[in-house]
């Protein structure tokens, strides 16, 4: 932690902030220890079920079930924000405008060269 240098355009992560890291109350530390104990108990229970050589049924992992449900039901829980709107615009509208500009300028330049006589028109595909 002593050799950590902050990036110029990013904030310091909360886990590396000395005020958050060292100045914790006893209640907060106790709550964190209780959460860690619950996580360790659940992990131990899952490992025992997973490594049981006599098991016949599937192991139900609630976290995996929640994750699969969330992945398969994206739109009912989607919340439009300014960030998602900006990303959607950048992904859909900006490439269309970019390619429109590229093709239009290429076509206009080619037409100018044809009118100036420096490039032959070529074979028309339709009359």
TrEMBL record:
It comes from the Eukaryota. It is found in: Mitochondrion inner membrane. Keywords: Electron transport, Membrane, Mitochondrion, Mitochondrion inner membrane, Respiratory chain, Transmembrane, Transmembrane helix, Transport. InterPro entries: NADH_UbQ_OxRdtase_NDUFB4_su. One of its GO terms (cellular component) is mitochondrial inner membrane. The chain crosses the membrane at residues 85-103. Complex I is composed of 45 different subunits. Belongs to the complex I NDUFB4 subunit family. PANTHER family: NADH DEHYDROGENASE [UBIQUINONE] 1 BETA SUBCOMPLEX SUBUNIT 4, NADH-UBIQUINONE OXIDOREDUCTASE B15 SUBUNIT. Accessory subunit of the mitochondrial membrane respiratory chain NADH dehydrogenase (Complex I), that is believed not to be involved in catalysis. Complex I functions in the transfer of electrons from NADH to the respiratory chain. The immediate electron acceptor for the enzyme is believed to be ubiquinone. This is NADH dehydrogenase [ubiquinone] 1 beta subcomplex subunit 4. It comes from Coilia grayii (Gray's grenadier anchovy).
């Amino acid at each position: 932690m002593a050799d950590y240098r902050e990036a110029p355009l990013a904030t310091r992560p909360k886990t590396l902030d000395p005020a958050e890291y060292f100045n914790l109350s006893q209640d907060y530390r106790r709550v964190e220890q209780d959460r860690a104990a619950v996580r360790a108990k659940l992990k131990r229970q899952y490992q025992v079920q997973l490594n049981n050589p006599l098991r016949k049924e599937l192991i139900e992992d609630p976290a995996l079930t929640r994750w699969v449900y969330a992945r398969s039901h994206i739109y009912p829980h989607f919340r439009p924000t300014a960030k998602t709107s900006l990303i959607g615009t950048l992904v859909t509208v900006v490439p269309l405008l970019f390619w429109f500009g590229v093709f239009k300028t290429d076509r206009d330049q080619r037409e100018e060269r044809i009118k100036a006589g420096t490039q032959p028109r070529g074979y028309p595909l339709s009359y």
